[in-house]
Amino acid sequence: MPLTKAELFRRIRSDAALEELSIRALARKYGVHRRLVREALTYAEPTPRRQPVRRSPRLDPVKKTIDEWLRADLEAPRKQRHTARRIKDRLAQEMDTVIPYTTVRDYVSMRRRQIAAEAGAPADGFIIRHNRPGADAEVDFGEVVICLAGTMTRCHLFAFRLAYSGLAVHRVTVSCGQEAFLEGHEYAFELIGGIPVGQIRYDNLSSAVRRVVFRSRSRVENPRWEAFREHYGFTAFYCIPGLDGAHEKGGVEGQVGYYRRNRLTPVPVVATLEELNHRLAAADLADRDRKIRLRSRTVGEDFAAEASLLAPLPAERFGAQLTLRPRVDREATLTVRMNEYSVPARFIGRKLQVLLGTTEVVVFDGRTEVARHPRLPGRGGQRLLLDHYLEILLRKPGALAGSEALDQARREGTFTADHEAFWTAAKAATDEATGTRELIQVLLLHRHMRGPDVTAGIRAALRIGAATADVVAVEARKTAQNAGRSPTISAEPPAPPPPPLPSDPPPVTERTLQRVAQLPADHRPPPDLHRWDQLLHNRRKESS
After folding, report:
1. Angle at Cα 470 formed by Cα 469 and Cα 476, nearest 5°?
2. Which label site among 40, 70, 247, 379 has the fewest CB atoms less than 10 Å from its CB?
3. Residues in a beta bridge with 459
4. Is the full-model pTM beyond 0.90?
């Protein structure tokens, strides 16, 4: 490696003192000019290189104009001030002067600071915040891209960070809606084992804030978010809208970027979000051994000091799922967050209750669960179960072959090669419509019989050459009975036996005795029961 000029000076001075080499010998040894040797023997440090004064003949005539524009910007609104690009364009339009953008950019960058200092503008800096253990935290969302089940999918990273220790909790969801916002808090609170007793800092996201009161720190909060805060008992602090507000929670802003670069690069390839979140949980645990910047203690050591200062968790969870009541359309689907999910066809035209979580969509008719789907990412997706359309397909068997529900069942593996073989054999034995109806009857067997038993029944029916649903049902029952289990799946578990009656009557409490003592005296005569037997042994009147 070539020597630096400072190292070269040191070696020349050392050789001249120890080996008593001449100037000519030193110049020949190090391959430099004798003037440099004399300079090294005279000065211990090399003379700093002078910066050349760069002249810009085309910029000099317009510098005064640019300075005037920059001074006028001091009184202009922040979002309507000149940029270097705008100054370059104005010079070309108004003064017919074409100057390279880099030349204008360098001059504007230098003069803007100088003009602001000359005008006495306040310095724009940052104040280091004092963080008490167990007091404050910060929350933010960040966009991430993952390869989910072979498809590049845009998701959202929820980040919760304790301000004192820097301990962070992360979770990836398909949306940044209120259900993901609330569920992320519950997950973080349970993981750290408590709730910060100070403030949790937020942006003005719509999941929490309905309206920002003009030029103030006051906010009109979302009612459900307000109920969530009261349930867990923490205080929310909302930052200034815009870019300036990001500096008020700079810890979590930097945390999201750090996590994307170090834990989500390269793009993760996963089959499900649960698999990715398990990875992130392990990464969060490993990060407790990390030291932040110049700290002498690790994140885990600082967290151990504040864990006991967190407020305790309530006895029950709030419940982060959103409750919706969409109507079932003619295609037996519900639209939830711009995605469609199927329900049994008998509910067409009715409104059903939907519990929307970050990972699942559960549909209820009253208190009865009628459908459960994994939540779809993005928009415009469809999740259709073939079982929900079997009653319609019995009347329209020709629609089965080209249906989206059948295609999804094939991709998921619920419509197996055994079903395909039975369908082919049933159509060959009769005709296409009749064979398809036989297949649908077989698919209906899955509702009250176990899948392996039905599959075994299909194979047995194909071996004997009888591709009918009745034969499949008989063979499936035989398979279950041979295995020593019931052929049908009970819809409800058997009710537990009633508790035994107590042998002794329950004791009379002191409170009951006090209430009896407070009753007024009863002065009514005792009842007469002499005629009671006449009611029990009343003879029928004989008909004349």
Report:
1. 85
2. 379
3. none
4. no
Name the DSSP letter for residue 485. Answer: S
Candidates 311, 341, 312, 314; CA nearest to 329 is: 341
User: Three-state SS for 151?
Assistant: strand
- Residue 539's contacts (CB-CB under 8 Å, 6 or more residues apart) are none
List of residues 6+ apart from 292 with CB closer than 8 A: 166, 299
From edge to edge, which strands make up the β-sheet containing 353-356? Answer: 322-324, 353-356, 360-365, 368-374
Contact 234, 200 (CB under 8 A): yes
Identify whether the C-beta of residue 234 lies closer than 8 Å to the C-beta of residue 182: no
* Average pLDDT per consecutive 10 residues, the chain (544 residues; last block may be shorter): 84 89 91 92 85 80 93 88 93 91 92 88 74 93 92 94 94 92 95 94 93 88 93 93 80 90 92 93 94 90 94 91 94 94 95 93 94 92 95 94 94 93 93 94 93 94 91 93 84 52 55 62 77 63 50
Q: Where do we find the tokens 């003005």?
A: 204
d(CA 198, CA 252): 16
With contact defined as beta carbons under 8 Å apart, do 375 and 360 qualify?
A: yes
Which amino acid is it at 31?
G
